[in-house]
Write a structure and sequence with these properties.
256 residues, mainly beta, Jelly Rolls, 1 helix, 6% helix, 43% strand, globular
């Protein structure tokens, strides 16, 4: 009953927050048990470093790293030897793809030095070329050595961290690891807005100069993951005493 009340309350908020995006077109409320719903989620796997010198092995269909129970998706980062890596985690990607809409993810973050959780979107077909040409939208990133901050960022060929031009903004919250927050993206042909709860703190406008600045006119999909270490997440090292750590997700909803 309590979760139903929360669902109705957040549904009302969603409609009020943006009349532009009124129709729910995709959702996972995690009202089941076991592995994530295979009709809605896939996995990216391996320990390639993912372009960021990350330390984890992302596993597939492994209950220790991603499972659903009591209305929550839990992604676990675990310290364990696994296929040459010292840590395991999961990187889920949605099987839904969208061009424009409002994406809402209610989540509670992991904590501790070395954690790098992310809720983000990337182009499905990569029509403009490899990263960052086809674009990336980071709805939420957090690094464990800076526990009270969340960051929203977009990456394009013109604006990306490899050349120091990325468009990004951070916001402070003191309860990111102890409370759930709604991380939301509103994306139209004109601009990208990113929110935490009801507060918009990031805006990126379409300059109408072409795909190098605005590749966000193609379908994108969602990703949920916890990285361990890496160029940003591991900047201050990894505290091995913190494991296991988890990101819990109450729901994912997409409106258009």
């Amino acid at each position: 009953m309590q979760k139903l009340f929360c669902l109705l309350a957040f549904f009302v908020f969603s409609i009020a927050a943006s009349a532009q995006f009124k129709k729910m077109v995709w959702a996972d409320e995690f009202n089941y048990s076991g592995l994530p719903d295979s009709t809605k989620w896939g996995y990216e796997t391996g320990n390639s470093g993912w372009g960021n010198n990350e330390l984890q092995f992302y596993t597939s269909k492994r209950i220790n790293n991603a499972h659903v129970d009591k209305g929550l998706l839990t992604i676990n980062a675990v310290k364990e030897g696994y296929q040459g890596a010292a840590y395991t985690s999961a990187r889920l990607l949605s099987k839904g793809n969208w061009k424009y809409g409002r994406m809402e993810i209610r989540a509670k973050l992991p904590g501790g030095r070395g954690m790098w959780p992310a809720i983000w979107m990337i182009a499905t077909d990569g029509a403009y070329g490899g990263w960052p040409k086809s674009g990336e939208i980071d709805i939420m990133e957090n690094v464990g050595y800076n526990p009270d901050s969340v960051f929203a960022t977009v990456h394009t060929e013109s604006y990306n961290h490899k050349i120091g031009t990325q468009k990004t903004k951070g916001l402070s919250r003191t309860d990111l690891t102890s409370a759930f927050h709604v991380y939301a993206l509103e994306w139209s042909e004109k601009k990208i807005d990113i929110f935490i709860d009801k507060e918009k703190y990031f805006e990126f406008n379409n300059e109408d100069t072409g795909y190098k600045a605005w590749p966000f006119d193609k379908q994108f999909h969602l990703l949920l993951n916890i990285a361990v270490g890496g160029g940003w997440g591991g900047k201050m090292g990894v505290d091995d005493s913190i494991f296991p750590q988890h990101m819990q997700v109450d729901y994912v909803r997409v409106y258009q």
